Amino acid sequence: MASIGSDGAQQTQGELQISSSSTTSNSSRDSDMASKLQKATSLTIQVLQEITDDFSEERKIGQGAYGKVYVAKLENGEDIAVKILYNNTPEIDDVQFQREFQNLMRLEHHNIVKLVGYCYDTQRQPMQYMGKTIFAERTYRALCFDYMQNGSLQKHITAECDGLDWRTRFKIIKGTCEGLKHLHEGFEEPIYHLDLKPDNILLDKNMVPKLADFGLSKLFGDQQTMTTHTPVGTIGYLPMEFLHGNIVSNKFDIFSLGVVMIKIIAGDEAYSRSVEMHRGDFLDLALSWSASSHSRMNEDLVNLRALTRSEAILYAEKSSKFPVLVTVTAPPWRHAEEIPRTSVDLVVVLGKINWLSAYYLEKAMMIVIDNLGPNDRLSIVLFDSDAHRLMELTYMSDRGQAEARLKINELVDGRATNIGAGLQEGDQILRGREVEEGDSRLGCIMLLTDSNDMSILGQEISTEYPVHTFGVDNHDPETMKYIADKTSGTYSFVKWDAEDVRDSFGLFINGITKVVATSVKITLRAHEGVAISSIESGCYVNRLNSDEMSGEIEINDIYAGERKNFIIYLAVKEGNNKLVTIGGGYQSIHGSKRLADMDVFILRPRSGCSPAKLAMHRDVAAELARLKLVKELSILVARGQRLTFYNVDQLWDTVRLSEDSRNADEETMSRLGKCVAEIRKVACLPDLNPKQVPYLMSWLSCHQWQRATTKGLLYESGAFTLAQPGVSHADGKDSE
To answer: Where is this chain compositionally biased, Polar residues type (predicted)?
Structure first.
């Protein structure tokens, strides 16, 4: 196996001759080139055959007019790209090879592909000629580059509402411009690329663009405009002055850059429409792209709504715990591709499991892999008594997905005994990201295991990234919920059945790939004469200032179509009608956005008020009933009280006979009753600790975070599933 370094340890049999026509009188430039040539790594054709599996079809990643490109693996595990040129016409091939080689040797820039080695190897090979065996010379020419994990830009060209987010598109445009500027202005004698197009812009693992394919590039001296009859460029990227007069200047590349920019912003189809347009019409089209972008940026991704317990309180009446329902909603989008969502960095932490479960684990992982977008990244960690990285964070392009599937297919069965080690490894992967990536991308961990390792219950675990836990087989529910709660994740349990696996992991991935807002903060400010008694926010962090005049609720992230309900209890004095001002803000891919303040009022009639205005609002009643059931079950779990028919029935009677439940709608109470019935099914088991009931623990996780979880069967997992476009949730019910 070969290694690439600067010592030139691998030597070719033939020597690369630099054409005198490309030299210059500038002695400093000659000296610089000579130094770079000495450091260039030369490889034999035998070495290239070894690291590309003899140029196998499985390793071919591209093919162009001048050669084929293969991915090769060095002995240190690093991947490189090997471009081997065709050997059709030796004289032309030599000119082509030497031109690209010289240009690449000259160029060092973070937006230009880096040359890491070359091959110019002439061998004598036996062949039959007129009945005799003769030895003919064959020259192999190849260039080796850093491998670009995300392939060419062409693979990522889509319409403006689909594919890459605007932040990534802008980064690609900016990097392409900087690379081209280096060619034009980075040298005393500029270099013109002359074939700039999406196929010749490569993207590394971080979607950083690198200009490539300098076979047509030319070095220009003082005369920076010339006429040429040599074929250059690609139809569709050629300026009019070249088409009509074969004139080449720096404007050639600038025209090509403009075409590339339009395609990055709006896709191939939009560019095709623009070609035949009058200049004024094209400007209008470009402005519409800008307006569309700004429209999406200015549109509220998070909405607030507030409902008081009733429309009115009699003027002389006081209340120490007057409930106000605050609803935070991220509206569903008309089409999934329109969601301006945050890109995801997902680390899947897998515990080794038995061979039978491995079959379903593979199916589960394929659902996750197939539903991540090309701007999302995936890493895989496997743990038994220790943790091992199977795959670093990798963009889920076609190639990235293929690599992930291969890693999953290679899994072997075993026994997972150290959950802590797996989680620590997952945290390290996410912490290792660049600062900019951590700020702009959603990092989260998915833990999937059948382990009943309970040792982590007494350990401090990192709360930096949410861990969504999935328990299978004989896992420990208490441990799974403990990890999820500590990290702001959710706990699901999965029965190994093809349909359940599809539904369970589809539910999860459908959520994390629709995060439209992060760092959501709801602020509360009581008005004069009113105090905030308490805040009911489930597992979400809330803070109430000591003066009881202000407070806040923090939501880590929210999915498109998701809704969160919170109850604010107010101490209201006689006569107060202006209660509280609700506001806040959030982060999205467009930056920070402030939520408009909303004042909450109530009517204070002195007398003669209609009963309807004094009646409890059914949405508030429904939420209070749900919270009461959550609270009663949480107490039962915390006490470790044994489940019996009696205590489950007694608990349900306490909830359903309360004033809140009597005012709630029948549908809400029916749905909560079904949940209690599921818990009651296991109450007949002797000495059953409620912490060991997967359905109950997952139900609590679902309702404390108000986020859908799988509780064994999708039928039992309806609460808090994402709202669909066109479905109204004004009544405040859970989406089923």
So the answer is: 8-18
**Which positions ≥6 away from 154 have C-beta within 8 Å?**
197, 198, 199
pLDDT at 466 over 50: yes
Percentage of the residues of the chain whose pLDDT score is greater than 90: 34
Looking at per-residue pLDDT, the higher value among 31 and 589 belongs to 589
DSSP letters of 140-177? EEEEEEE--TT-BGGGG---TTSSS-HHHHHHHHHHHH
The answer to whether 259 touches 271, Cβ cutoff 8 Å, is yes
Distance of alpha carbon 410 from alpha carbon 387, whole angstroms: 16
Burial classification of residue 64, based on how many CB atoms lie within 10 Å of its CB (0-12 exposed, 13-18 middle, 19 or more buried)? middle
Binding site, annotated residues? 83
On whether the CB atoms of residues 604 and 315 are closer than 8 A, the answer is yes
d(CA 254, CA 275): 16
Chain segment 374-406, per-residue pLDDT in tens: 889 999 999 988 999 999 999 888 888 999 999
Determine the Cα angle at 697 with ends 696 and 698, to 5°.
95
Residues contributing to the annotated binding site for ATP: 83
DSSP E strands, 267-318: 303-308
Give the side-chain half-sphere CA count within 13 A for 422: 29
Residue-wise DSSP of 44-107:
-HHHHHHHTTTT-GGGEEEE-SSEEEEEEE-TTS-EEEEEEEP-SSHHHHHHHHHHHHHHHHH-
* pLDDT at residue 504, as a whole number: 84
Share of the chain residues as helix, strand and coil, in percent rounded to the nearest 5: 40, 25, 35
Please give the single-letter amino acid code of residue 587.
Q
Positions of E strands within 164-215: 191-192, 201-203, 209-211
What is the token pair recorded at 213?
């394919």
Mean per-residue pLDDT, 483-495: 93
Residue 362 neighbours by CB distance under 10 Å: 14
> What pLDDT does residue 590 have?
75
The full set of domains in the chain, from first to last, is: 1-147 (3.30.200.20), 158-298 (1.10.510.10), 303-334+516-615 (2.60.40.2430), 342-512 (3.40.50.410), 616-736 (no CATH)
3-state SS assignment for residue 22: helix
pLDDT at 729: 40
Helix 90-106 vs helix 27-39: angle between axes, to the nearest 10 degrees? Answer: 100
d(CA 497, CA 512): 23
Higher pLDDT, 494 or 102: 494
Q: Which residues pair with 72 in a beta bridge?
A: 80
Q: Please give the pLDDT value at position 167.
A: 74
Q: pLDDT digits over 568-617, tens only?
A: 999 999 888 899 999 999 998 778 899 999 999 998 888 878 888 899 99
Q: Taking all residues of the chain, what is their mean pLDDT, rounded to a whole number?
A: 81
